[in-house]
Amino acid sequence: MALRYEVHPEQPQVRLLKQACDWLHQGGLAAVPTDSSYALVCHLDDKAAVDALRRIRGVDERHHLTLLCRDLSELASYARVDNQQYRLLKLGTPGPYTFILEATKEVPRRVSHPSRRTIGLRVPDHPVTQALLEVMGQPLLATTLILPGQEEALNDADAIEEALGKRIQAIVDAGACPREPTTVIDLSGGGAEVLRQGRGELARLGLAA
After folding, report:
1. Which of 8, 21, 103, 118 fits a disulfide with 107 by CB distance 3.0 to 4.6 angstroms?
2. What total number of domains does the chain contain?
3. CA dihedral 87, 91, 94, 99 (to 10 degrees)
4. What end-to-end distance do the CA atoms of the chain give, in Å?
5. Helices (H), 58-192
6. pTM here?
7. Distance CA 119, CA 87 (A)
8. How far apart are CA 92 and CA 122, in angstroms?
9. Residue 145: domain span
10. Mean pLDDT score across all residues of the chain
11. What is the CATH number of the domain that holds 199?
């Protein structure tokens, strides 16, 4: 059964986050809160964990997974970003935005889009996620915790435990979080194409709705 770590939503206990990170370093999966919904996360470099994450979500390698980063400098290590893109990223980070960008060689090929060599990246604006990334010391590979056949993300630790308690190793329980997905913007084609309008407001980025 998954171990459940009940943490304060604004001042999470570091010792509990370290325990959750230990599972991730060992190849486990964890459910964690973000500023848009709960997400399923794993270690970027663990192929078995990535495969397990995809199986739970019911998606294949063409589905864009997302790297959760602590800040823009970390994000830039995993994506090729020009000056214009950087200005847009700066407006939307941290925040509920996912940016599709051209991946660098730091991103394992198996987790980027197979034909486009792109990856989703974002800097979440949630104290628990930020603290977890700080303890982890590197980005986490993530996907919204939506189960196959469902339209909404799981947003309650009890429901997550009931549905996935035997398939994941850790649940970081910080209470309910927003249930609206991120706004997804594709910057890989030279412009800014809005693929999904979610919680992040386009006006904040200077884009028309």
Report:
1. 103
2. 1
3. -60
4. 44
5. 72-78, 83-92, 127-136, 157-164
6. 0.93
7. 19
8. 9
9. 3-205
10. 93
11. 3.90.870.10
